[in-house]
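Q: My labmate handed me this sequence with no annotations at all. I'd like to see what the chain might look like in three dimensions before we decide whether it's worth expressing. Could you predict it?
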Amino acid sequence: MQEVHQIIVPVDFSKATAKLVDYASYMAEKLSATIHFVHVAEINQGHDMLLGSSVFGDIKEKIIAAAEERMTNLLEDNSECCKGCTGKVVSGDIVDAIIDHANNNKADLIIISTHGTKGLEKILLGSVAERVIRKAPCPTLIYNPYK
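A: Here is what I predict for the chain of 147 residues:
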């Protein structure tokens, strides 16, 4: 059985993020592993009309700057319980960026939160967690923060 040394934890900074961070930190401590948090800023969605505009560059910079500030705060707020954790903000398609991050960091495990979408919303939007599982280069654990 492969040992777990590198854990990728995608975060979206929603209300459920704190529970996910606590759970992932607990697992990392038990496994003597390092956590690499990743936030994907999906910038292109909804801004297609602005792609040629200088306004788009400003919007993109603001979105990434805000996400980087939140990532810094997440790391600082959890520095005691999550020693050695790192965080990165990337842009692009959420699922592809998570998979790329897992590959680049030689992930042994991905711990991802579910949002608990059901019915029509799940059919129309799909589940990021479900798509990550299908493409993941390593085992993936889905954490339900609503239970």
